[in-house]
Design a protein that fits this description.
The complex is a heterodimer of chains A (about 280) and B (about 375).
Chain A: E1 2-11, E2 14-24, E3 29-33, H1 40-48, E4 55-60, E5 63-65, H2 75-78, E6 81-84, H3 96-102, H4 114-126, H5 142-153, E7 160-164, H6 172-189, E8 192-196, H7 200-206, E9 209-212, E10 220-222, H8 224-227, H9 230-237, E11 239-245, E12 251-258
Parallel strand pairs in A: 3-8, 3-9, 6-7, 7-8
Antiparallel strand pairs in A: 1-2, 1-4, 4-5, 9-10, 11-12
Helix pairs in contact in A: 3-4, 3-5, 4-5
Chain B: H1 12-15, H2 29-65, H3 73-81, H4 88-123, H5 135-148, H6 156-179, H7 186-210, H8 213-224, H9 232-251, H10 253-259, H11 263-268, H12 273-295, H13 301-313, H14 317-341, H15 350-367
Helix pairs in contact in B: 2-3, 2-4, 2-14, 3-4, 4-9, 4-12, 4-13, 4-14, 5-6, 5-7, 5-8, 5-12, 6-7, 6-12, 7-8, 9-12, 13-14, 14-15
The chains are: A alpha/beta (about 280), B mainly alpha (about 375).
Keywords (chain A): ATP-binding, Nucleotide-binding, Translocase, Transport
Pfam families (chain A): ABC_tran
GO molecular function (chain A): ATP binding; ATP hydrolysis activity
Amino acid sequence: MIALEQVEVRRGTACIIQDLTLSLTPGLVHVVIGPNGTGKTTLIRALFGDLPISRGGIRIGDQALRPNSRLGRGQAWRSHFAYMPQDTHLDIALTALEVVVVGRLGRLGLHIDDETLELATQRLDAAGVLHLADRDIGTLSGGQRQMVLFAQVMMREPRVMLLDEPVSALDLRHQIRLLDLVRLETRKRDLATVVVLHDLNLACQYADRLIVMRPGASAIMGAPTDLISAALIADTYGASVEILRDGRGNPVIQPIGSLGGDPPPVPPALFSPGA
Amino acid sequence: MVRGPSFRLRTTASARRSHSVPTMPAPHPAGQTAIQRHRHREQRRLWMLLTYVGLSLASLVLDVATGPSLLSPGEVVRSLFGWEGRSAMTDAIVWDLRLPMALMALVVGAALGAGGAQMQLLLANPMASPYTLGMAAAAGFGAAATLAFGGFGLPVLVAVPLGAFVFSMLAAGFLLALASLRRRGGDTIILGGIALLFLFQSLVSLIQFMSAPELSQQILFWLFGSLTKATWLTLSITAGVTTLCCGLLFRLSWRLAALAMGELRAASLGVNVRALRVEVLAIVAIMTATATSFVGVIGFIGLIAPHIARMAVGEDQRFHLPASMAAGALMLSAASVLSKTIVPGSLFPIGIVTALVGVPFLLWLIFRRPGLS
């Protein structure tokens, strides 16, 4: 169980996250949604210890991250996490297999042993990209590269997985493949997974818990079916939506228009019934 | 922070903490193929590395052979290995005059190649090298100032390298201070380095402008770079420092490879990015400042050798670092041969040779960049 208690994070003078209290459950996928600038990436980086918290605390097991503590910058804290940052740009002449092997940094020496290579091929296989093992990482497509990078973080043995917009540059097929894999590994390894997504419908499909970051209000967490309502989306995004249900009862969010200001003009009907 | 490559086996406890790490799985055919291919690639890289080393040694023999009195490579080899059928004259030329210079070319080339390779990785920028970051220019200023002030009471042969070393380290200190700032990336270091480059270049010009013509000439010659002042003593100092520093860099190489994948990603793989930056900058600074203070400013090796190495062995750091050293050694040694043969009977400044050969090569590299490896 990972607990955030009244966490506040500042960047410069701006208070990005305020009074955030959450608990993250192992084995569940927590999807963070919210408009730009509400602190989704900040939340991920604060968890990872890359940004200091200015109030409150974050607890993992018997370790607690407090304001001004140096714990967050050290390995004792960071070894709990597998973190995929937003940026997937890689300018390095290594094969996909070698990129995955680097995921085992700290155990790598002069000779890469068979065990490490076997583990790396298994990770690539699980991500469905074993056939790309010999390819130079720079020649892969964005989707393929993201799958390889996921295989890389899976070389670690984390308790918490942090994914910052992992699918925003991917096509539908790769989006689903990666998120399916994320869910599978979350269950299999009992990870507490936090994923930032922009696509609300993907978020509702894959979230066990949805964390909604709201501008000017504290975040709320819950199951998508319980949480999502037209009023919440209107409140959070300033957009007017209709909530539909898919075959499994998951919410589907259909945008209608923006709130505030005039609605977009309706084009005059060319043909009207009975004319 | 993770310390050094660890060769110890994983304890079973840590290996089994996650139940998805299977107990020695059944061999996966496609996985086995990938592993075999990887092993082949490792072997091919090793051969490429050995080829570079072999070429450097061949160039060393040629370097010793060329000069005012031309020796045959056979004579050189006989003298080097102490075989029968050599003359005392040849021995004197080889061992007393030319071998220190020729070995210095290899050692300095290796130091510059390794320094450039690590800087490029560290700053994730293919244009980074100790030269482009102003460390060589600072050394040039140190040497010029020492010459202008008559060595500050020390003999010139000691004072000039010392002045160059001190100023090179001052420049490095500035870059280190930038690197240790929080929330500052590699770009800050590069921009700071470029500022240093311009500052010290204009200061050198100022000193030259204000000096007597003979002194200005002396400064100019130092700035061109020259191996002729190499002695067994300066050679052993440079070789010792280079060996030590490259050993330390080699230990950090996997972490540098992770850093080249982005700062946050490296941090997520367990790298303390700030500490790594400071450590590597300090090592590279000491190594290149030492080399530069004895031979003067030699550009381009640090910039290009890593690219030549990358073409041959990729960026697997176990091969890339030694290959960068070998490529640098080969380049400087070959430049030394050229500098003695372009105008027969006279010595062309080696710094000019490396730049003249280096520029077209750099352009060629730029145009083939999309297809790296």
